[in-house]
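Long-time lurker, finally posting.

We've been working with Flavodoxin-like domain-containing protein (Caenorhabditis brenneri) and I want a structural starting point before designing mutants. I don't trust myself to interpret raw outputs, so I'm hoping someone here can both generate the structure tokens and explain anything notable. Sequence follows.
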Amino acid sequence: MSAYQVPPLRPEGGPRGKEPMGWLEEYLEGKDEILLYITAALGVLMPGFVYLLYHKCHAYYERYAKKKEEERLAEELAESEAVVIVLGKEDGIAAPWAKVIHDKLCDEMVRKPLIWWSDSLNVKELMDFKGFCVFITETTAGGQPTPSAEWFLEWLEDLAADSKLRKKANFDKIRFSIVGFGSSDDGPAGFNKVARTLLKRLKIVGSKQITEVELFNTTETDKQTMERFIEFSFELLIQMDKHLPGMGGDSDESEAGGASSSDSGSDDEDDKHKKSQ
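Top reply, 14 upvotes:
Generated this for you. Predicted structure of Flavodoxin-like domain-containing protein:
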């Protein structure tokens, strides 16, 4: 029998065979300068890439900020506009006073206010409007509105009942004032009924009242009416200044003050009725 031979053992700590290398390691073997060039190139290119990326992002941010600022200024400009809306005939009792307040606003405002008559009122323009609305109303004999004013009041009522249509409008951004002209001969219930109905419906659709409702008695002389009308004009301009965008006029405190004068509507209107008589 042949003796079993043990294979020779590698001495402990002896040299080991080389492990196989990948193709990249084999290629770079002995070419240390290539790695140096690569790292140097990355050291130059990476900061440049980061700068370009920063420059691109910064330019995008500047365009975005400029666009938002333009939108903000356009919004403030829209909310600073004014329109006189006449719910009555162009040759009716309220028409001359509508022109008086319109001329007064033209003298005081940089952007000339518009004047809209209910006979030709475009409700789409009103739904898009966001500024100040000065309503001049006319109540005819028996406490009745003119046909165009009646149509407008009914449209407001329909708008209040239609939540989808109301969301498309900007009535929550409108700040309004109401001036009514009517005869005390119509009795307490009919005296300036259009103005009182309009107040209720504007509040229902979310508009903000900035002055007390001014009710004028057409049985008074023009001199008496003019004296009160001039006082109202000054008060209107003061309140418009307070409620300009960015002036703090939309705070809860001021809104509460405006609401207190209007929520006591019937009492105030009765007082005005007595004064006008």
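Before you design anything, note these points.
Residues 80-276 form a domain with the Rossmann fold fold (CATH 3.40.50.360).
Residues 251-277 have pLDDT under 50 and may be disordered.
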